[in-house]
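Posting this for the archive.
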Amino acid sequence: MSAAAAKLLLLVLVPSDWDADLAGVTEFRRCLVDEYSARMNLCQGRVAMRSPLALYCGAWPRGTI
């Protein structure tokens, strides 16, 4: 794994009234590691949101987002 890939992070903020599907989150994390050597942090929002917010941190490959 390159130094740049080691720093790829996807931060997902989930609306406060949503519940995450744990099996889906686990599978998505596995796919991120396999495809991009990236990590994901899932955080529950504290305020009302219409939908999840994804924040891509690091130098992701062009066209990934």
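The CA atoms of residues 2 and 12 lie 23 Å apart. The chain has one helix and three strands.
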